[in-house]
Write the structure tokens for this entry.
Amino acid sequence: MRLLVLCHNHPDLQPGGTEVVARGLFRELRDRHGVEGLFLGAVTGQHRERRPGTLFQAAGRQADEMLVWLSHFDRFHLAQLDTWGLQELGPFVAGFQPDVIHFHHLLYFGLETLDLVRRVAPKARIVVTLHDFFAICPQEGQLLTVDGRLCMGPSPDGCRRCFPGRGGTDLVLRDLGVRGAFAGVDLILSPSDFLRDRFIEAGWDPARIEVLRNGIALGTPAPHRLAPDGRRDRFGFFGHINRFKGSMVAIGASARLTKQGVTHDLALHGGTAWQPDEFLAEFRTALEAAPDARHHGLYTARDMPARMAAVDWVVMPSIWWENAPLVVMEAFRHGRPVICGNVGGMAEAVRDGVDGLHFPIGDSTGLAAVMRRAAEEPGLWDKLAAGIRPPRLIDQAAAEHLALYRRLLAPPAAAQQEEAEAPRRKAGGKALVRAG
């Protein structure tokens, strides 16, 4: 089996959740299952300088991880306008002769690349994992209105309020373009039930979208912090510092706790690359007004255990729905309860009162109240830490991806038999779990 994985960046350049999950799955399939493949990350001039003579570059020392330089991307239409670049990408894909082509995002590649790979690799099976809502939401895939309110899904009137400068024709053409390009996809994957439900509500065929959850690499948990006074009042934020991830909500909550005289510490871990100057100025001003909150800067996977060892709770204050947040899995791997918004993929991943606490999304006052309870309620941290289930590991996710690829590649008769037997095997597995 030859596998081509395409992602909108490379985790060594932009360590976002999608990039980390995509590359992790690729390496697991290669190292544990012997799958021959190539990881291709799309970049622009923001991430890597273009080299003369070719669009392709090495990503690092791994011979099977490369970058393709693609610029001129239209984020509204998910369109790659660089037709010359796509002409060079076509022979590259055809020469690789993949059996499976797995997209982990269409940013920079564009809808045109879906059509391209179908044309140059007609025998390959095409899989797309939806890591956010870009395919149904032109507002940066966040399902947020321009004034920051949660959106339940696209609608002609709602989308026009977010894009008053565009006519209804633009919105219709975008939707038709996305659906037309996805018609050539063999299978669509979603890492969460919530995301799948949003696409179904938007009119997508539920039979074409399967839930296949992400996994995380096995690692040694960071030791729990010693708390001689019994207080569990150290909170950590992990993620890119931007408006969507809710760093401003967390800082606002910390400022309120300080004014209330509540002893605590909020450590913000994450980089600020590619953020508007206006937001960065607002971020710095908010930090100055919250003396118990500190920004510790960018971190790598190697830094995570040490930084996690210094906190009791992981705070996830995202102001959008989220999907299948990797930071929740990281927190649970290290035995830290999570405080998060009460909607979407966050609420699906964190059980309120069992392995974490929910607060009203986007509400810094509500977050402050929950953080105060977390710091002051005796026995709460121990109860929630004991309720944490070990996160799903990447080896299981990789094995399920491999089985999926084999199912797609199987002759029609074998695929039908596989599909017929799947419910019985699943029921048998549940019986074994209950028996155990």
